[in-house]
Request: fold
Amino acid sequence: MPLAAFPKCFLDAMCVTREMSVDQWIDLSTQFDVDGLEFYWGFTPPDKPVEWERLRQRVAEQRRSIPMMCYSSDFTKPTLAERKEEIEKQKRAVRAIAGLGGKYCRVLSGQRRPGVARDQGLRWVRECIEEVLPFAAEQRIVLVIENHYKDGYWDYPEFAQRMDAFLELVSSIRETDWFGVNYDPYNAIIAGDDPIQLLEAVKHRVKTMHASDRYFEGGTLEDLRRIEAQPQTGYASILKHGVIGRGLNDYDRIFSILKGAGFNGWISIEDGPDPATGAADIAESARFLRRKMPQFGLI
Reply:
């Protein structure tokens, strides 16, 4: 089973301050026992096929690949013109991961903006995804929708964050080889849902997985709900990513269910709460997963 790493703890350095380049991340990641690197749109050179090929070759020289693009589509914007623009942005991300030699591109529902009714928002999201799907198929890229909490640079949490909305959205999209689920177990916990119950509901549509563990520092789930009630940019400060295997997720049950469902996609490490210790945390998470995955035939 292929294992990738995602530079969660370095996103500000790569996307905001630009203190870390993509090449530096590629070099740093040689410290981890992984087969690939998941890219994020915020640090991917846009619309530059020559640069995509250069980066693909750099990673290939390390005998690894770039399997996934972590993109944050925002399909709940209130006007049709804005949503059309988001569709085109998603297509740019699809085109980029195809140029990088990958196979999967994340898609999200969008922000849970005040005033957007549930049915209306889910309809907008479905329509946008269905409009992107033919282009993704043409590019040979699988769209994977994540049961997500919140993009780090958004004001509001995910529109389809809660399990009932997420399942309704997933079931509304026709089954095709070019669409599936990127399962993140801890995001279900943040939503107040049972990650095992969610996985059981979508297990046959899971194409990729974010392996994550998080914890609260100086707060609780109830505190997080109060914070979410007010607009803010980024993650709540009380919510921290942690080393995989040290949090609340039951990876024995998760991997057992995935194996039973015939899962054969990529698992991508999403951890590292502190840039100062991020590399060591990712390496430790990789070691945990390399030990755990073979126990369930995910090799």
Summary: The first strand starts at residue 3 and ends at 6. The mean pLDDT is 91.
